[in-house]
Design goal:
The chain is 45% helix and 8% strand. It is an alpha+beta fold. It folds into 3 domains: 84 residues, Double Stranded RNA Binding Domain, CATH 3.30.160; 102 residues, Tyrosine recombinase, N-terminal domain (DNA polymerase, domain 1, Orthogonal Bundle), CATH 1.10.150.130; 191 residues, Orthogonal Bundle (hpI Integrase, Chain A). Helix 4 crosses helix 8. The longest helix has 21 residues. It is elongated.
């Protein structure tokens, strides 16, 4: 047969091309290729020696159709299998099964599948549902489009860089979070035996070099929350105490106790012992998942007494800083919006409250402010770290650090309160630091 002849055939029937290859035309006019063969030991359904017909696909000059030339190549391959003593149909079915299994294995160990398994296992430890949702949404938005279906074992550092590059300059903070989450997924894959070699999402293993190009000033380190210089805290507290509303009081308590946002807005009256001056944050609301006692200074106790509920309708489980909706705490954006409003200056002017680089300060940055104050005023490191509820990284040191240093921390926090209440100086006056006693 010729290609033109095959195209012209329309009468129903079976037309041989030779070598077992046939074109079959149906009564409806559709055309398909078949390969007829027989081999020693081949039996029909009734146990008699017979032949088989293997479909090679529909005829067509465009995919998914099979042209005459392609049909001849498939028939030749089937004939070669016959010569090797194999049944072409069984060999094809075996190959299809193996291919399906291979695809299924690739799909099961794709970057997206492995990331999903990691998140299902490890994100349960995140107390904030918003953070769990952000993990999934950022990977789905920035990693899955190019890497989601790729085998986790074969993804290269360059492919990770290509996925990050579109947002590295324009959305740096988001890009850094994405790469940190990808890094966790690849570490999980290596631990599970799904990948060998370097971690392609590790900045220390070479990824930073691939992202440096086109970035003015090179790669920036991990971005810290802009923090108010500790010398300016007294002036800020004067401005803050002039503000009304729960957000202002929540921020004031957060600064006095060096607490995290979630610890403050989730606080309940049951956690407060105002007579003893103690606030005990339960483990489920702490980042380290361990209960944490915070000493309440006189100013913090006085602040809380002004907020204490007068009725017993909601009991001790009521939120210290209730939100607009009944049974809900203050929004985690309330303090951020308050600081933003306090920092806004005149057009084209820097923020009123800013860090050393000129960036507007943030709520979380006040924890850094406290830490800077502690370091500059000679407070013991272990007390400052305990006040911030930081986990002791060194395992040997942690084994011996079983005390929470509560009484000593109370003394330090009272000194911090005293500094926060120091009369603010005019902007053009500098305070002389008192020399430490020998």
């Amino acid at each position: 047969m010729s290609a033109r002849g095959v195209e012209a055939l329309s009468k129903p029937g079976r037309y041989p091309d030779g070598g077992g290859l046939y074109l079959q035309v149906s009564p409806a006019g559709t055309k398909a290729w078949i390969f007829r063969y027989s081999m020693a030991g081949l039996l029909t359904a009734n146990g008699k020696r017979g032949e088989r017909q293997m479909g090679l696909g529909p005829y067509g000059e465009r995919a998914p159709g099979v042209t005459l030339a392609e049909a001849r190549r498939k028939a030749a391959a089937a004939t070669q299998r016959l010569r090797e003593g194999q049944d072409p149909m069984e060999a094809r079915d075996t190959a299809r099964t193996a291919d399906a299994e291979a695809r299924a294995k690739v799909a099961a160990n794709s970057f997206q599948a492995v990331a999903d398994r990691y998140m299902d296992t490890h994100l349960q430890g995140l107390s904030n549902p918003k953070h769990r949702a952000q993990w999934r949404s950022t990977l789905a938005t920035y990693a899955y489009p190019s890497l989601g279906s790729r085998p986790v074992a074969s993804i290269t550092r360059m492919e990770v860089a290509d996925a990050l590059r579109p947002i590295w300059n324009t959305k740096r903070e988001t890009a850094q979070r994405v790469v940190q989450r990808m890094d966790r997924v690849f570490r999980y894959a290596k631990a599970a035996g799904l990948r060998d070699g370097d971690n392609p999402a590790s900045m220390r293993d070479g990824l930073s070099a691939l992202l440096t190009a086109g970035v003015p000033g090179g790669i920036k380190g991990r971005r810290h929350h802009p923090a108010l210089p500790w010398q300016q805290v007294p002036a800020f507290m004067v401005a803050l105490r002039g503000k009304e509303g729960l957000a202002a009081r929540a921020l004031e308590l957060a600064i006095l106790t060096a607490a995290r946002t979630g610890e403050v807005i989730g606080a309940r009256w049951a956690e407060m012992d105002l007579d003893a001056g103690t606030w005990t944050v339960p483990a489920e609301r702490m980042k380290a998942k361990r209960p944490h006692r915070k000493p309440l200074t006189p100013a913090a106790v006085a602040l809380l007494r002004t907020l204490a509920p007068t009725g017993q309708e909601e009991g001790s489980q009521a939120f210290v800083f209730p939100g607009v909706k009944r049974g809900k705490p203050l929004s985690n954006m309330a303090m951020a919006m308050l600081i933003r409003g306090m920092s806004e200056g005149e057009p084209d002017q820097p923020p009123r409250w800013r860090d050393a680089k000129g960036d507007a300060v943030t709520r979380h940055g006040f924890r850094s402010t406290f830490r800077d104050w502690a370091g500059e005023t000679g407070q013991p490191v272990d007390l400052a770290e305990a006040a911030l509820a930081h986990v002791v990284r060194d395992k040997t040191e942690a084994a011996y650090a079983r005390s929470d240093l509560f009484d000593r921390r109370r003394t330090m926090m009272e000194a911090w309160e005293a500094w926060c209440a120091t009369p603010a100086l005019p902007a053009n006056v500098s305070r002389l630091r008192r020399a430490r006693e020998a």
